[in-house]
Structure formats: C-alpha cells, structure tokens
C-alpha cells in the first residue's frame, strides 16, 4: 500500500532534480509556493490528482513510480501534445472566473457544432448507402 509520506518524498526528489527553485517549480505546476510547501511538508492532507497529472505530463514522471516507488522515475514514452495540454490548463487556471466561464461556453458551442457535423455526416453516409443498394 502506498504511504503518502513516501509519495511526498518522491515529489520532493522530482523538485530537487528539476533544477527549479521551490517557487519556480510551483509556478510551473500552477500552484502557490505555499501550496507546494504544504504538499512536501505534509500540511496538505490530500495531494490533488491534477497536481500528480501535471507532474506526469509536464515533467515526464512515471505515475507508477510516483505512486508506489516501483519502476523508472521517468517515462520512456512522452508525448509533447500532453505537455501542451497541461500548459493550456495552467494558463486557463490563471484566468479570472468570468474569462474561464466564457471559454467554457465557447468550448461547449464548438463541441456541439462538431457533434452536429458528425451526426449530419453519418446521416448523409447512411442515406448514400441505402441509395446504393437500390441501384443495380
């Protein structure tokens, strides 16, 4: 079973090996230096799943190692697009609530548009398939 104190030690090791100061590392993961200090020193009773995902994607940390201490510290297979997604999440989190709400509305509208286009394409393809059966 995973001991949270062991996870804290592994997080501290990642910070030390990153070359960032505590303040710089906190900035990179999108939390306050005090919040990061609380994670390391055990003042935070829970370590956020989002924080762990950021370590995984931003710093290429192996999630199995982070949780259990097993396996290599860093992942061999790292996808740059995941890092870009984390960057976008961090930027989003720094926006004012009103700005976040506006972006959410735009994303929802775009998603609905994509879904409608997919449904329309499916209907067109289905109609074409049915017509092709009618012709000899």
Could you describe the 3D structure shown?
By secondary structure, this protein is an all-alpha fold. It folds into 2 domains: 1-94, lambda repressor-like DNA-binding domains (434 Repressor (Amino-terminal Domain), Orthogonal Bundle), CATH 1.10.260; 95-136. Helices cover 74% and strands 0% of the residues. The protein has helices at residues 4-18, 22-29, 33-41, 49-58, 63-68, 80-93, 97-134. It starts with a helix and ends with a helix.
End-to-end Cα distance, whole Å, is 66 Å
What sort of overall outline do the alpha carbons produce when their principal axes are compared?
A: elongated
CATH class of the largest domain: Mainly Alpha
Largest sheet: none
Radius of gyration: 22 Å
Low confidence ranges = none
Provide the helix percentage. over 70%
**SSE ordering:** HHHHHHH
């Amino acid at each position: 079973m995973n001991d949270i104190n062991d996870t804290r030690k592994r997080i501290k090791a990642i910070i030390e090996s990153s070359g960032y100061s505590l303040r710089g590392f906190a900035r990179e993961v999108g939390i306050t230096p005090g919040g990061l200090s609380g994670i390391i020193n055990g003042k935070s009773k829970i370590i956020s799943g989002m924080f762990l995902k950021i370590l995984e994607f931003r710093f290429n940390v192996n999630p199995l190692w982070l949780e259990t201490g097993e396996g290599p510290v860093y992942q061999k297979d790292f996808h740059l697009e995941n890092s870009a997604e984390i960057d976008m999440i961090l930027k989003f989190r720094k926006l004012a609530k009103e700005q976040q709400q506006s972006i959410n509305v735009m994303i929802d509208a775009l998603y609905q548009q994509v879904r409608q286009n997919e449904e329309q394409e499916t209907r067109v393809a289905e109609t074409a398939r049915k017509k092709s059966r009618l012709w000899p």
